[in-house]
């Protein structure tokens, strides 16, 4: 580790976005991974496309091993000034549409139709059951 408590803005980090000089931001920390680019099992281009922004999600989404995470320490150069990083806009799914009165009515009509079909069947089944239960075996 060689951070020395340095704090960088995202603008400063963005200046290091080439394969000769490559910094990335993960979990609020800045890493100079220039020397690692050639050794990266995923190739250098995936790291290069994660420069100039918060790369935490890109790094996590791959499911890097704990070994990979531990390797980060070696490349630590400082922290990011979080006020310079745009806040993430999380996708919030829209609330499900409220059941309107008309489709509530539709669903109760459907239940009635199902019952109209099931009740006679149940009665028939019950009758057959009773019949076979009470039937004396013919000799
Ligand atoms: C945000 C930038 C990064 C992206 C998008 C990324 C992407 C990937 C991808 C796609 C693989 C899978 C390669 C394969 O299976 O063929 C991989 C593997 C790996 N990466 Fe990264 N990587 C990033 C940064 C880093 C950094 C900074 C390190 C370490 C200093 C690292 C260490 C490793 C290691 C060790 C593997 C092998 C598998 C493992 O142990 O998890 N990566 N990476």
From TrEMBL:
The keyword Transcription does not apply. The keyword DNA damage does not apply. One of its GO terms (molecular function) is metal ion binding. InterPro entries: Cyt_B5-like_heme/steroid-bd, Cyt_B5-like_heme/steroid_sf, Cyt_B5_heme-BS, Cytochrome_b5. Pfam families: Cyt-b5. SMART domains: Cyt-b5. GO terms for cellular component: membrane. Residues 5-81 form the Cytochrome b5 heme-binding domain. Residues 86-105 are annotated as: Disordered. Keywords: Heme, Iron, Membrane, Metal-binding, Transmembrane. It is found in: Membrane. Belongs to the cytochrome b5 family. This is Cytochrome b5 heme-binding domain-containing protein. It comes from Eruca vesicaria subsp. sativa.
């Amino acid at each position: 580790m060689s951070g020395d408590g340095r704090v960088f803005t995202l603008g400063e980090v963005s200046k290091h976005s080439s394969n000769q000089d490559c910094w990335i931001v993960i979990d609020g920390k800045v890493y100079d991974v220039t020397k690692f680019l050639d050794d990266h099992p995923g190739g250098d281009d995936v790291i290069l496309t994660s420069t100039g922004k918060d790369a935490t999600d890109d790094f996590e989404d791959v499911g890097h091993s704990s070994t990979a995470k531990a390797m980060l320490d070696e490349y630590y150069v400082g922290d990011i000034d979080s006020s310079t990083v745009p806040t993430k806009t999380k996708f919030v799914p829209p609330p499900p549409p409220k059941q309107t009165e008309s489709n509530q009515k539709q669903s109760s009509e459907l239940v009635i139709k199902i019952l109209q079909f099931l009740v006679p069947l149940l009665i028939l089944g019950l009758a057959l059951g009773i019949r076979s239960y009470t039937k004396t075996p013919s000799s």
